[in-house]
Design goal:
The protein has a single domain (about 20-140), classed as Rossmann fold, CATH 3.40.50. α3 (about 55-65) runs parallel beside α4. It has a 5-stranded parallel beta sheet, with helices on both faces. The protein is of the alpha/beta class. The chain has helices at about 10, 30-40, 55-65, 80-90, 105-115, 125-140; strands spanning about 20-25, 45-50, 65-70, 95-100, 120.
Length: about 140
């Protein structure tokens, strides 16, 4: 029997196109941006790294990320300021916000939560933890406070 004459069910099934999840990373340390971007690109994400919170806010609407990763201690605007700005906008209210920072005291974690971050990870963040958080979020498992 010729396979071309009898297409399989798999070949007859329409292809499902899912958008590639987009992630923005803002950190004034270019090495951290590059390493995190490389990790997330290998996971299949569309990643844009920027050197500051101001640049992230300028490019946010055009890129439309699903996930934003922010450093807290940036010179132009803190990650807290950027998180508050994003949460105040209709488009930024629904993204996953992750702080990856060297600021990791109990007070820093409290400020992160209060500023609108969903997760607070200390540098260097465990790559498996970071990718698991993003995968869970994209699968519909939203953070619970």
């Amino acid at each position: 029997m010729n396979d071309a004459a009898h297409p399989s069910v798999e070949r007859d099934r329409p292809e499902i196109h899912r958008p590639v999840p987009r992630v923005m990373i803002a950190d004034d340390n270019p090495d951290h941006v590059a390493m995190t971007a490389l990790l997330l690109k290998t996971e299949g994400y569309d990643v844009r790294g920027v050197p500051s919170g101001t640049t992230l806010l300028e490019q946010f609407t055009a890129f439309r990320p699903h996930v934003v990763i922010l450093d807290i201690g940036m010179p132009d605007q803190t990650g807290y300021d950027v998180a508050r700005s994003l949460r105040a906008s209709s488009k930024g209210a629904v993204v996953l916000l992750i702080a990856i920072t060297g600021h990791d005291t109990q007070a820093d974690r409290w400020l992160s939560r209060r500023s609108g971050f969903d997760h607070h990870l200390a540098k260097p963040a465990d790559p498996n933890t970071l990718t698991a958080i993003i995968r869970d979020y994209l699968a519909g498992n939203r953070p619970t406070a």
